[in-house]
Write a structure and sequence with these properties.
Radius of gyration: 19 Å
Number of strands: 10
Order of helices and strands: EHEHHEEEEEEHEHE
Strand content: 25-35%
Strand order of the largest sheet: 3-4-7-2-8-9-1-10
Largest sheet: 8 strands, mixed
Shape: elongated
Oligomer: single chain
Number of helices: 5
Length: about 180
């Protein structure tokens, strides 16, 4: 449920979070993924990267991307094919049945993250957030309580201080380090 990953600069941590967000949203109808980063500009860049993955994939984007799409949110329509009996003729036909949409929301590390029940929370570079303790424990973590959602943190190390050090030593987090 709780993972913290510390690694060096420019090895693809943010890209990994984007891939995780997209795969989770595609495979879990009706769920919410919340990605956070230090600034609004970085948040928009995360959603831009996810949209780029979708554009370059083999998915039919007009079928799979939901109606509502903004600079910080992406909705993904889910459907399945079911045999449906025609009321008049009684014949069976294969029809597309829509399921609940999943969504990926990217916000800066502010109160903008409030109000969402989150199935997967992804924090990019948490160890460098201003007021990281407050954001993580008072804003982000409670978003996962009702859904029993997962939290994954990817960050550069930032010494034996602050939110990074606290989370790294939290017994509820599995720790991974990449040198």
């Amino acid at each position: 449920k709780r993972i913290v990953f510390a690694a060096a600069n420019q090895i693809g941590k943010s890209i990994c979070l984007c891939v995780k967000a997209l795969i989770f949203a595609l495979n879990n109808p009706g769920t919410t993924v919340l990605m956070t980063s230090r600034t609004e500009t970085q948040s928009k860049d995360l959603i831009r990267q996810i949209k780029s993955f979708l554009r370059n994939s083999s998915l039919a984007s007009e079928t799979d991307i939901g109606e509502t799409e903004t600079k910080t949110e992406l909705y993904i329509r889910h459907f399945e094919y079911k045999d449906v009996r025609d009321k008049d003729s009684g014949e069976m036909s294969l029809q597309k049945v829509y399921l609940k949409e999943s969504r990926i929301i990217c916000t800066p590390a502010t109160e903008a993250a409030l109000g969402y029940a989150v199935d997967l929370a992804l924090e990019d570079e948490l160890f460098f957030y201003e007021n990281g303790e407050h954001f993580h424990f008072q804003i982000l973590q409670p978003r996962t309580y009702t859904t029993k959602g997962q939290i994954i943190i990817f960050s550069n190390p930032n010494g034996q201080q602050g939110i990074g050090w606290n989370v790294w030593n939290d017994v509820f987090y599995h720790r991974y380090r990449f040198h």
